[in-house]
Structures are given as C-alpha cells and as structure tokens.
Design goal:
alpha/beta; Arc Repressor Mutant, subunit A; 9-stranded mixed β-sheet; about 40% helix; about 20% strand; transcription regulation; LysR_subst-bd; DNA binding
C-alpha cells in the first residue's frame, strides 16, 4: 500500500469530495478520483459511497481511517526526527472566531513567522466551530470548551468585554449613566439565529432585548460602532485598534470570557505540534494582556 494513496484517501475523507481533496492537495479532482479507484482496486474494497452531499466513507473506509491516520502521524514523526529541534517548518492552519483572528492572531503570527521563516501560517477566520477531525485546521481557538471528541483542550486566557460606542455617537445622543439609560439608544450585536456558541450571546447579559444593527461577524459589529452607528459589546483587546471608541457603564456591564486552544488528540505525539501550540498559547496570552493594558481606565 502506497503512502501517497493513503494521503489522498485521507484528504477525500476529510473534504467529503474529490474537488475539495484536490484543492487541499494541489491536484485536479479527476486525478484524485483515479487514485482513489486505484487504491480501492489494490485493496479489493469500496472505500467511499457517493451521496448527494458528496463522498462519505463506506464501512471499509471507516475501518481503514484510523490506520491511515496512524501512518500519517508516523510519517510526521519521522520527518521531525530527521529535521531536528531547530526551526519550525511546514504549514500551520489555525482556525479562530473572527475577533481573535482579526485583532490577536496577525500580531502573534507575525512574531512566530519572524522566529521561524520557513513556517507557512494560515489563519482561517470563520464564525463557527471548526471540525478538527476533518482537519479543517491543525488547531483552533474557541470561545468555549468542547465536551466531546478526541481532542486536546488547553485554556489559553481570560479576556474582558464591555459596552462601547464611538465618542461621536456619545456626544450626539443622551448621556448614559445607568443601565436604564440604554432605552432609546441604537444597539449593535449578533444576528440571533446565527449565534453558534452561547458564550457569544453578549446582549442577553445587558438586558437589551433588540438590536437595530446585527451581523454574524464581531469585526463588522466593531466597524459599525466605530462609524457611530450605536452601542455594542466589544472585546477590550479590540478597542486600541479603533480610535474614538470608548467603554461605557463599565461598573454595571462587564463580561469575562475565555479562549481555548483545541487540537486533535493524535497530535500529542508530535513534538512539532506541541511546540507550535505552546508558542501560539504564549503569544495569545501576551497579546491579550498587552492590548487590554492600553485601555484608558
């Protein structure tokens, strides 16, 4: 059995399609299909079942999957053993909610790239939970601790959120001295039916029942606040990037959340992945602390 064929098998299993696997591997879908057919012929077994949703694993494919992943891990360990403990190289794909991806990871990954010039870092910002079993990312930052799956979960750091608005908005509207003063002000928040994690339901904790402007992206919300469209709950670490945005009612409305670093359980055996996870964890902790320290009391 050829490792390259197993690599293609894993890509199709994770992408659920020939075209998706081809994009990951940098080859065309027809080549992927031929290689899968060749592997099935060599094994004398049907590995995939074509459905309207794509390519699902057949029972024989399900049985092959853990063995193929074990080979993948062994190949990675062999490469690490030959390359030694020096520079980190290869590709690292990090999945993160867009607040972290926009306001923290660019600085953290810039420093990581400077320290390891041959490391290729990809930041995937999506407002949803990543599927590490399908290798949508090598590791992911999450806003809540997962309760299921073969995962390694590490608490990164706590962070603060507050109600905020641009100073232009605050000058043009009635003063806000207590929570009751929020009535009549325009609120900005998440689209209610697109909140993918209960930890993101910020406005529920303010007592506000309706938002005039909503988005599934925290970065879009922050830009709306920066343009004077209203008030919203924002990450303290994002405020230094938005001159003129000020926190309000800090004594009455203050939220605390946590970031978690999530990895596939099999990656615990990889010295490279352990080093990358530790570097990313240290970088995120330091960046949150640095940015929150810049806020005006």
């Amino acid at each position: 059995m050829d490792w390259d064929d197993l690599r293609i098998f894993l890509a199709v299993a994770r992408a659920d399609s020939l075209s998706g696997a081809g994009r990951r591997l940098g080859i065309d879908a027809s080549t992927v299909g031929r290689r899968v057919a060749r592997l099935e012929g060599a094994l004398g077994a049907k590995l995939f079942v074509k459905t309207p949703q794509g390519y699902g694993l057949a029972p024989e494919g399900e049985r092959l999957l853990p063995h193929a992943e074990a080979v993948e891990a062994a190949m990675g360990s062999a490469q690490e053993a030959l390359s030694g403990p020096g520079d980190l190289t290869g590709q690292l794909r990090i999945g993160a909610p867009d607040g972290c991806a926009n306001y923290l990871l660019p600085q953290v990954c810039a420093r990581l790239s400077e320290a390891h010039p041959r490391l290729e870092i990809q930041i995937v910002a999506l407002p949803r939970v990543f599927n590490l079993s399908k290798r949508e990312a090598d590791m992911a930052v999450a806003v809540s601790q997962p309760q299921a799956g073969r995962l390694v979960v590490q608490r990164l750091t706590d962070y603060q959120l507050h109600l905020a608005a641009h100073e232009d908005y605050l000058r043009a509207h009635p003063p806000i001295r207590r929570r009751a003063d929020l009535r009549g002000h325009r609120m900005i928040g998440y689209i209610a039916d697109m909140i993918f994690d209960r930890e993101l339901d910020y406005l529920a904790e303010t007592g506000v029942e309706w938002a005039a402007l909503t988005s599934n992206s925290v970065s879009v919300q922050m830009q709306a606040i920066r343009m004077g469209a209203g008030l919203g709950i924002v990450h303290d670490f994002a405020i230094p990037f938005c001159p003129g945005v000020r926190r309000v009612l800090t004594d009455e409305i203050s939220l605390r959340r946590s970031f978690w670093l999530i990895r596939h359980a099999d990656d615990r055996r990889s010295q490279r992945m352990n080093r990358l996870a530790e570097a990313l964890a240290q970088g995120i902790r330091a960046e949150v602390a640095r940015l929150q320290a810049r806020l005006i009391p």
